[in-house]
Give the backbone structure.
Amino acid sequence: MPFTLRFDAVLFDLDGTLLLSEKDLIASVRHALAAVDHREPPDDDTIIMEVGKPLETILRELQYPAGPDEAKLFADTYREHFARTFGTHTKLAPLCLEVLDALGEAGVKRAVVTTKHQAQADFVVGKMGLAPRLELVRGWQEGRKHKPDPEPFLEAAAALGVARDRALVVGDTEQDIGAAKDGGLTCCAVTWGFRPILLLKSLRPDYIISQLRDVLSIAATPTG
């Protein structure tokens, strides 16, 4: 079926957007916090409101010691635990593979843009069967900026050969929405992720959706 494209690429966040990974992320944050300090960790609701931010930011905003040594210990422990236990609870968002396939068939390029380290991002998308359905996985590595800086999304769009006004950002946190807005990209917030809908509405994204398949109707319109 031929399509008219509103957007040439969709740039997806990973955790909380394509993946329902809340329990695994919380468990890894708790484990890594215990390596830094033996205090009673914050509750799950407090932790999940920090997920989606860089690891050193999570440590600092949870009011743990966050010097260079503590930040490295936290990040290394978190990544090791997450890789070792990944998949215990994590699932794909409903219709995730079907939506990615439909976007590809319509001619829309698909990318993941995440704050995860590049190696861990590649590991996760491979394990979850996403890799064959993506043209690009853009994680973090030394020298790259994190969301909410727009650089990750702008570099992803450029790597795909897509102008910023032809790229749609889809994510679940203020990091995604803020980065998209600051970069001049259209943004779509999802309601099944890590932030409450009232917060998402206050950020004024261009779209808010409650099911992933709505991305397809935003990005492409059937012409036949």
User: Anything to note?
Assistant: The chain has two domains: 3-20+91-222, 22-85. Residues 3-20+91-222 form a domain with the Rossmann fold fold (CATH 3.40.50.1000).
